[in-house]
Design brief:
The chain has 377 residues and is an alpha/beta fold. It is built from 10 helices and 21 strands.
């Protein structure tokens, strides 16, 4: 414990002691997990008219996850814990793999407000003492620069770090005469674990829903290098229709190996998603990873538009989640469900692939990847 506390304090005092300087990196999602962090659904305004179905969708997700790794669940209070436990038990969840934490949240999208974990390298740089194997980068969360209720979500991130007792960094930049914490959501980035990162211009650089006013591409890339050990940032253009986050990459393109990316494509030229996804596809085909290796691009179909109450929702098969020996893929009762599941099975041949119906969940404007955050082994 003393060593961890010392590292945390020292990293705050020494500007050079960033995670990268100490040999940490952000691992790929397919690397081994110790656990998955989720928050139990409670905010009925996120699923108006459909909320009663959502806890049962969560139970099905937890049923799959608990077979392969521990599931850490944030709940509002004791009463919600008891309700959640009852639903999970009726759904035949392996409860020995489930742990509850009574920490209130605003929403369930832990991908965006939970800490991003980094792992220490095989050897400490410069012959220094080896740092703890796991640490956290606790970015600021401000509800996608769109909503005013985010304070509980951001506080939950710090509680996760405190529960795990790992070193943490809270990235800051100078803004005029003051210092501001840097906003970064987990769904806005995707990494291959060896130094390449996918993101979109729409999310990181647009003045719309601007997370970090005054922070340009160069400054952001420097922060990603220092805190996540990113050596190359690959920027796509725009995301899909219905995306509430204004540009999260996990709906459109995902690394599935060091040099392979699956990319969402829309074949219908009359569809609003056709041109932005074609533009992203062209960009990916001209890109290389951090080693200069040309990317292999695997096309992933889009489902037909999912519309509820006249609103088109951000339904995408790319919002899958990788757990230990398992891939959970959103499905939408669509003819392309089978094609998408087969493609994911082909790029992850050694993993079980399970489809999770997300036609109700997506009414909350997020799916499987949005609601999960992995804790590396």
């Amino acid at each position: 414990m003393a060593k961890k506390s010392k590292l945390k304090a020292r990293s705050a005092r020494q500007p050079g002691a960033t995670p990268a300087a100490l040999g940490y990196r952000m691992p790929a999602e397919w690397e081994p997990h110790a656990a998955t962090w989720i928050a139990w659904p409670h905010n009925k305004s996120d699923w108006p008219g459909k909320f009663p179905a959502i806890p049962w969708v969560y139970a099905e997700i937890v049923r799959h996850l608990a077979r392969v790794e521990r599931v850490e669940i944030l709940v509002q209070d004791k009463a919600e814990q008891e309700r959640a436990a009852g639903i999970l038990e009726r759904s035949s969840v392996h409860m020995a793999a489930v742990r509850f934490h009574r920490w209130p949240t605003n929403r369930v999208w832990t991908r965006d407000y939970a800490p991003i974990f980094v792992k220490a390298g095989a050897a400490a740089p410069g012959g220094t003492a080896a740092p703890p194997p796991l640490a956290a980068v606790n970015w600021r969360f401000n509800a996608w620069a769109k909503y005013s209720d985010w304070q509980l979500d951001e506080a939950a991130s710090g509680k996760i770090v405190g529960r795990l007792r790992v070193p943490q960094w809270r990235p800051e930049v100078a803004v005029g005469s003051r210092r501001e914490r840097v906003v970064l959501e987990g769904g806005s980035i995707d990494v291959n674990g060896s130094g390449a990162l996918l993101a979109t211009e729409e999310c990181l650089l647009s003045p719309v829903q601007q997370r970090n006013p005054g922070l340009d591409r160069s400054a952001l890339e420097q922060l990603l290098a220092e805190y996540l050990s990113v050596r190359k940032v690959l920027l796509l253009g725009r995301c899909i229709v219905g995306d509430d986050t204004h540009g999260h990459v996990d709906d459109i393109a995902r690394f599935v190996s060091r040099d392979t990316v699956v990319a969402a494509v829309e074949p219908d030229a009359a569809d609003a998603n056709y041109e932005p996804l074609q533009d992203n596809l062209r960009r990916l085909r001209g890109m290389t990873n951090e080693r200069g290796e040309k990317l292999r691009v695997v096309e992933l179909p889009m489902p037909k538009p999912v519309i509820f109450r006249g609103q088109r929702l951000p339904a995408s098969y790319a919002n899958f989640y990788l757990a230990n020996k398992l891939v959970l893929v959103p499905t939408f009762n669509d003819l392309n469900d089978r094609r998408a599941l087969n493609i994911v099975s082909e790029v992850f041949p050694e993993r079980q692939v399970a489809g999770i119906y997300c036609g109700d969940l997506i009414w909350g404007l997020g799916a499987l990847h949005c609601m999960t955050q992995q804790q590396p082994e």
